[in-house]
Amino acid sequence: MDPKPPFDEEKIVARAQQGDRQALAQLVIEYRSRIYHLGLRLTGNEQDAEDILQEAFLIMVKKIHQFKGDSSFYTWLYRIAVNIGLRKLKSKPRKYQHISLDDPDMEHISTAETAEWPDFDYSQISQKPFRKKLDQLIEKLPDIYRTVFILRDLHEISTEDTSKILQITPSNTKIRLMRARNFLKEELEKIIAKEGLT
Questions:
Q1: Residue 36 belongs to what domain range?
Q2: Which of 143, 42, 149 is nearest to 99 (CA)?
Q3: 14 and 79 inside one domain
């Protein structure tokens, strides 16, 4: 069996912009799993994730000619999916509105300060019950923090690309991420202390 040819995003996008249906299908195949899981993480609901997936690809097909190549194609597609997901969240009542993580004055927090904050450590929560608790805690985060956390830590998108997707500065991206990580870390440490790792 021949090995799968490498995915050349730039060439496939160029073909798709010229109306090549096979190229459009290749883009859907390449990104559908990531977009679905992004939608699932954002909403916590499989039907909503399916809706986000379908709407994102419908918009992609309709507007792909507007993609100028200023960022990578997946950044452009993720921005579409995130916007759909956030719009869907705004239309629904949230269960955890009492949680407040007010933004500090972000422009006054230096990059050096944010660099000193620790990374989020998943090593203690690899077991299924703790993963489930992490998912519940992520759902408690306000949208602006949850979205950054999902993109950066769960989808491993760079700070620069995350800032482009969310149309905020890299500094704001880092601060929102650290606030999300700190909240999750503190809550998980409480659970670990209370329930242990067995």
A1: 9-90
A2: 143
A3: yes
The answer to whether the CB of 188 falls within 8 A of the CB of 126 is: no
Residue 98 lies in a domain: no
Q: Give the tens place of pLDDT for each residue, 46-98.
A: 999 999 999 999 999 999 999 988 888 999 999 999 999 988 887 776 554 43
Q: Which amino acid is at 108?
A: H
The number of angstroms, rounded, from the C-alpha of 189 to the middle of its chain's C-alpha atoms is 24
Q: Is residue 99 part of a domain?
A: no
Tens-place pLDDT, residues 105-120: 333 334 444 444 445 4
H or E element, residue 6: none
Q: Classify residue 100: in a domain, yes or no.
A: no
pLDDT at 112: 40
Same domain, 140 and 170: yes
Strand positions, DSSP E, the chain: none
Residue 4's pLDDT band (boundaries 50, 70, 90)?
low
**Rounded (10°) angle between helices 21-43 and 9-17:** 110
Q: Please, are residues 107 and 170 in contact by the beta-carbon 8 Å criterion?
A: no
Residue 27 domain flag: yes
Which CATH number covers residue 188? 1.10.10.10
